[in-house]
Amino acid sequence: EIVLTQSPGTLSLSPGERATLSCRASQSVSSNYLAWYQQKPGQAPRLLIYGASTRATGIPDRFSGSGSGTDFTLTITRLEPEDFAVYFCQQYGRSTPLIFGGGTKVEIK
Amino acid sequence: EVHLLESGGGLAQPGGSLRLSCAASRFTFSDYAMSWVRQAPGKGLEWVSAVGGGGDGPDYADSVKGRFSISRDNSKNTLYLQMNSLRAEDTAIYYCVKDHFPRNGVFDAFDIWGQGTMVTVSS
């Protein structure tokens, strides 16, 4: 079973700064079946990125995903006030369980 | 707009049962695998169970295997989660989620989430 480790646990940044979030898998993620979600307080998560690097419908281009194998990154180029939230990575594909990382909280510095 | 609406959450005693429902609308329900994902208070996300579009291949997290059962009624566009032998650690918001793409044999990223229904297990 894959383990996804997200780092850092908390990222303290100012609006306009660049955020770089890491998701490391304990074994290779097949076919780059890696997704990123954003969750704001009191809301359900929202799909941002799938296939490691493809933005979901309606997601601004300041969000980008990269990586392959075991190392993946979510980058937010210029943080907007609405981007301060918790971000989760997830492995999906043919095998279960479908695993989520523990999350990274992006907070206002 | 594609929509998922969960119901059936509430307070249950340890050892008790609850049945969650998820009503889907505005997409061809039978084409998509569906899952339940839960989130304990203040914690991260945990995938619970998934079922293929035709009801095939139900699968479960080890933490709920043998206690929970997922099913769907494609004629009613509804997903279910029967939860038996509930434990305190099952306390969470339960989200109904839709696979992004209609693929056979592959569980996909989750593009649509319901608003969630809270399950509390306590005596």
Report on the structure:
The complex is a heterodimer of chains A (109) and B (123). With 109 residues, chain A is an all-beta fold. Chain A is 0% helix and 49% strand. Chain A is built from no helices and eleven strands. In chain A, strands 2, 4, 5, 6, 9, 10 and 11 form a seven-stranded mixed β-sheet that branches. In chain A, strand 7 and strand 8 (71-76) form a beta hairpin. With 123 residues, chain B is mainly β. In chain B, 0% of the residues lie in helices and 48% in strands. Chain B is built from no helices and eleven strands. Chain B has strands spanning 3-7, 10-12, 18-25, 34-39, 46-51, 59-60, 68-73, 78-83, 92-99, 110-113, 117-121. In chain B, the strands form two sheets. In chain B, strands 2, 4, 5, 6, 9, 10 and 11 form a seven-stranded mixed β-sheet that branches. A four-stranded antiparallel β-sheet of chain B has the order 1-3-8-7, with no helix packed on it. In chain B, strand 7 and strand 8 form a beta hairpin. The termini of chain B are far apart. The model of chain B has no long low-confidence stretch (mean pLDDT 96). Chain A binds chain B through residues 33, 35, 37, 44-47, 50-51, 56-57, 88, 90, 92-94, 96-103, and chain B through 35, 37, 44-47, 50, 59-62, 95, 100, 105-111, 113-116.
